[in-house]
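Continuing the series of single-chain predictions for the mutant panel. This is the parent chain; the variants come on the following pages.
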Amino acid sequence: MGKGILILVVGVAGLLSLLIVNLNANTNRSLDTTLDMYKSTQARLISNSGVEVYLEKMRRDKTLTGTFPDNVLLDGKYDLYITGLDPDLTIRSVGYFYDKVHTSLVNAKREPVQMPGVTSALYISSNTVSLNLNGNVDINGNDHNMNGTAGTHTALTGIGVDDATDSAFVIDNVKPKISKTIEGAGGTPSVHIVPDTTDWLGLTEDFIFSADTVLTTGTYSSGSQFGTEDQPIITYCNGDVDFTDATGYGIMIINGSINLSGNFEYYGIVILYGPSTIRCQAIGNNSIYGGTILVGNNVSIESQGNAQFYYSWEAINLGKLKLKSSRFKILSWLE
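Parent structure:
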């Protein structure tokens, strides 16, 4: 009897020991599995975060490309590779966390810039308009090529406004000599109400987000260039600016007033906006081919010398084809 009990006790003890060993082994395996999952998750997080970091860098630098190794993040690191050109950009991010490696492969393209609808050579939207036009002012809604020759697209209004009161004011307050040089659709002077429901504040914010160059209040003199025909850009001016003998291509947004002197030439769309008075002053030989848009509570237009505001389908289409947005569309994301 006693020997039987002893054998039973020894047997139970052996089973308990085996069970404890198995439990410890399972616990260790579970711990290893949990740790592996954590490290793999961190490597994946680092890899994906690397893509996001460099998408932001690419938003700010539209020419960014190449290899960028050893970026430290979350106690790990990642290597980043940018290859290809729009619309076939490839971003490869390799994340490392201890002994774990994770690769993210993203194909993306920049969203196209949404050009505003141009309804006239010079569009004015304001509660109060002030005009002081002297010299040789030519506001022409007939299509012009960028070299000054006649284009083939449908003519627009010379000066577009929001309502009949503004139209009558413009017609009544320009000199007869200048009235004859406001040409375009509907006869001379070509001053008409144009339908426009554009959210100009929202639109300018989109352009500012994608700006290639940001200017502050100041004078930009001879030699200043804001884009070329091959590479038009989005220029944002935060404040009142003076341009002397400057050139530009693309879109220019000015939160303030503009003073043009010397020889200023721009090909594309110029937008002046602001909550208070904005002034467009032109002295010397100045020309804008494309479209000029003035939106504010008070708009003042002054000119001396030679000022030309020409509608140009070619200049606007150049921006539509070649301007780069800072927003990306993700075509694929593989891990």
